[in-house]
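User: Could you check the structure of this?
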Amino acid sequence: MRQLRAVALALVIAPAMALAQPSAKDKQKASDLVKKAIAKSQAGDHQAAADLYLEAYDIIPQPLLLSNIGSEYQQLKKHVEAMKYFCKYIEADPTGSNLAYATAQARTLYIELGGVTTVEDKDLCKPIVKPPPDPPPRSSVGTRSTTSATSSLDRDDSTASDEPTDTDTSESKTNPLRYVGLGVGIAGAGLFGLGVYYALEAKKISDQITNHDPMEPWPSNIKQLEADGESFEKKQVGFMVAGGIAVVTGVTIFLVAKPKRASERVTLVPTATQDSVGVTALGRF
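Assistant: Sure, the predicted structure tokens are below.
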């Protein structure tokens, strides 16, 4: 999808350069630099691509090139530089064809750099203000005394008889946590299903672009199609990951919350592989 965007941007840049009325020599030089930048980007050399876009911008300062530069720095994980060029594009061309994409990327970078959860469009290109850190927990003598007293009680209880009581020999009422686990699991399944839906939508757009007849002109809404495709892909990953985590969490809560006898023990053991993380419940259920 990213390579297709680079080609589409090249098609938009050509007429935009013509509007700036550069000399034929400058126009040709800038166009050659843009083509080289696209090739470098597709080859994975994003730093070289950014440098070539900058050269082209120095010759013909078209705002769309600023968005391209931001994209290349974003691929390099140079988020501060990427944010700067996305904002330059937004300020230089507030009604441009690539405004929605540049705004979305700037918002993502602002949230990541600022450690916030949301930001208004009007504040995107202002200095990032990080939320104040949480105050350290306050301690007191009373708290320490309570802790010590609790520890003493725990030690006294350890010497008590281990004989099961009447309540130990019979199962208690249903633990409310089981309903919580069931609800979380059902919600997770719904989120995962939503992720599958967005995956199908993204594939539909990708197939439409991939199977486009090269002899036919691109549709007028190609930019919107690409933006929608990327949005669907991000939603697919987000919903499927969140749904999977919720399902695992719900099942774990449901199993752990089952009424247990005194002889039953359940231990939660973290597990991890190269592709996933989770929790394994060991013991009798």
